[in-house]
Amino acid sequence: MTSNKSQMTNPDNMRNYARVLTKDAYILSQAHFYRSNYWGLAHLFLGIVSIICSVSAGASFFTESQVSLRILQFSMKYEMLAGFLAFLSSIIIAILTFLKPSKHEQDHYNAATSFISLYYKARAFCEVVSKRETNDEKQLSRDLDDLIKEMNKVDKISPRIPDRAWKKAKRHSKEYFDNVPIT
């Protein structure tokens, strides 16, 4: 049985490995873009709901009228509504503080841009660098090793991707690579 290192000295094998690396980098970039979008929407939603609750609580508190509201067949005074909305607003703010969705959004976005950069480098390796007539196999091997090291480095510092985002990105990438094949 031949070693993996000896198989990687053949330019065709290196190109095939780089194709796999290219597809993986693209899938990971898309998955991270999806997660970045998810956390951005979560931050926006929770922030808007918190603002609405706090403004409504303030408005309810300062209402002079003692008119009762009918909510789910219970009679509530404005003071109780104000207290409930203030409590709900504080819970949402605590969730925002604990989850830090804006940080998750930025982390996933940074990972996505790193993987998309790697995708372009690996694609250039497949389609240009590895097809040159004057290529030295040792230099090609070093270039591929550099791509692999960069992929491992980016993957190591990137936040985890849930299965759902990975599967969605994989479906999307299949459609993409059907239309834009790697040569």
Number of helices: 6
Spatial order of the strands forming the largest sheet: 1-2
Q: Provide the residue-averaged pLDDT.
A: 83
Amino-to-carboxy terminus distance: 29 Å
Classify the secondary structure makeup into a structural class.
Answer: mainly alpha
Number of domains: 1
Query: Would you report the number of β strands?
Result: 2
Specify the biggest β-sheet: 2 strands, antiparallel
Poorly predicted regions: 64-75
- State the order of secondary-structure elements, H for helix, E for strand: HHEEHHHH
Helix fraction, binned, reads over 70%
Strand content: under 5%
Q: What overall form do the CA principal axes indicate?
A: rod-shaped
* CA radius of gyration: 26 Å
General description of the model:
The protein is mainly α. The protein has one domain (11-179). The protein is 78% helix and 3% strand. The chain is built from 6 helices and 2 strands. The protein has helices at residues 4-7, 11-61, 78-99, 101-127, 137-157, 163-179, and strands spanning 69-71, 74-76. It has a two-stranded antiparallel ribbon with strand order 1-2. Strand 1 (69-71) and strand 2 (74-76) form a beta hairpin. Helix 2 runs parallel beside helix 5 (137-157) and helix 2 (11-61) packs across helix 6 (163-179). The longest helix is centred in the N-terminal third of the chain and has 51 residues, at 11-61. The two termini are 29 Å apart.
